[in-house]
Amino acid sequence: MCRRRAGNLDADMNAYSPKKYWGELAENYVSADAEGLAPVLHPGAPAWFNRLIDKQQFQAVRRALTLAKVPAAARSLDVGCGTGRWVRRYGQLGFRATGLDVTPGMLKTARQCGTEGQLVGGEAYRLPFADGAFDFVSDVTVVQHIPAELQPATISEMMRVLKPEGHLLLLELIRGRGAHIFPRSPENWIEQATSHGATLLGWFGQEFLLPDRLFVRMAQSVSGRNGDRVSTGAPASHSESDTGSAMRRAYWRFRRITASVSAWTDPMAEKICPARLATHGMFVFRK
Length: 287
Known about the structure:
Elements: H1 18-28, H2 47-68, E1 75-79, H3 85-92, E2 96-101, H4 104-112, E3 118-121, E4 134-140, H5 151-160, E5 162-173, H6 186-194, E6 199-206, H7 210-224, H8 246-272, E7 280-286
Parallel strand pairs: 1-2, 1-4, 2-3, 4-5
Antiparallel strand pairs: 5-7, 6-7
Helix pairs in contact: 1-4, 2-8, 7-8
């Protein structure tokens, strides 16, 4: 597959620059937790919440790797690696891991967190790698933060650097909203990949978290009367991440209960609920 050049795509990012946005998060939340989770998950949330979400995502990634039957010592690329959590884990699982991120601050934190795999700076929609360089490519909640007009180029590039019969793992938002979030329906995510030569092996819903989502919606309806939006856990602005107030402390105290119950009941929710009811979808493709 020929390498697809982005040309003047940078001009489309004037209103919102992922590089600037994530650079500010890397700078402002670099010391939030030892694992480097805050800058790449939910900056305004307590550390326990990010660990809970990270654990669920890790379970989904391992399930996807099993579905793809990725062999030992496979060469992997994590696109938008952030602070390097997947590069570290892929190395622990025996893969030859590489991570790419556009934000120097994220890569710096990744090294400080002990990431030993190869870390490369670059844009997701014009990857600095040769055709067919990797056995599998992963994207964990990254493309959803790239403006919609650049998402097809990003997926095309991920397919380009895959070897024939290689695998693409996409964990992306399928519902919700946000100033820096551009989700698609499950059908649309699948179409984006299959239109660039991928074959869908399967997909499943990720993060149903039904009691927690109900609580967040109730909290939003209450706070909305005062013109204040309660963060749902999506990357937050600095005003949204202020946990000093009594209201914020009470919010997270109750949410610790609802989130923990939700994580415990998610396996049952997956069995009885349609996959599209989850907030995210894990998609596994073969080239």
